[in-house]
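Hey team,

Filing this mostly as a record. A colleague (T.K.) asked me to run one chain through the structure pipeline before their review meeting, and I want the input and output archived in the tracker in case anyone asks later how it was produced. No errors, nothing strange. Just documentation.

Input sequence:
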Amino acid sequence: MKSSAINADTAVAAIFGDPVGHSKSPAMHNAAYAALGMNRTYAAFRVTSENLAAALRAIHPLGIIGVNLTVPHKEVAARLIKDLSGEARMLGAVNCVVNRRGALRGDNTDARGLDRDLRDLGCELRGRLAIVIGAGGGAASSVLACFRLGANRVVIANRTPARAVALARRFSAKGAVRAAGEPRGLDALMDSKLLADARLIVNATSMGLTTGRFARVDYSSTPGDCLFYDLIYSREPTPFLKPALAAGRRAVDGAGMLVNQGELAFRLFNRVAPPAGVMRAALFNELGRTQS
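Output structure:
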């Protein structure tokens, strides 16, 4: 059965966000449903911050099997949902809500998705420095992934240093990693001495998504093996990645992370694994890119 054959028996999964029109998650999940012949579909719903609580309460009455959450809902949802996985609780953010007979469970697959993508890219962080730009839910997942990959230092650079401090304290308090992140302002991105030791720099903010501009970064001070990774994915290199490429550095966007966390969410929603490579092929087709 094709995923487009929607009827009264079709089970629905979805993504809530604002904005959400740019999301490629429906293409990925629906490709997997079609490949498996499942009578299920995945839709995108624009849910404003004011309506998030009501939308979450509607999941069970509407029979929605699971929901992914994107900006700006991940951190708020962690405060609204009582039953959280250990990872969602530690990160203070939810990107995946599973409906089990009316009981909602919040999980977070972002750190696992990034961890897997960085490993696939051959990014070796053991004993190295990583810099994470941002202090929200995506940044928390990035910090956790970096420590899991063996980084001995993770600098958290944020426009509002107090938020970077709060994120670093959260990891220290949870005791989930052997070291806390080091909070800094965005001035860290122009600190040539710091950047000279960086093996990985992750953008976990929305900078460049709508403005087309990014904060100043001293790309030339980074070592030749420094990887620049943007959680944002797009058809063309992002404003964060373009200068990195011009400086001869390796630059990768978050498409691989999106596929990985999407495959994890698919398993949670449907209790079956998606066919290998199907969700990735669907995403790269939507982006008009060849698979890498």
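Quick notes for T.K.: The first strand starts at residue 11 and ends at 17. The chain has a mean pLDDT of 93.
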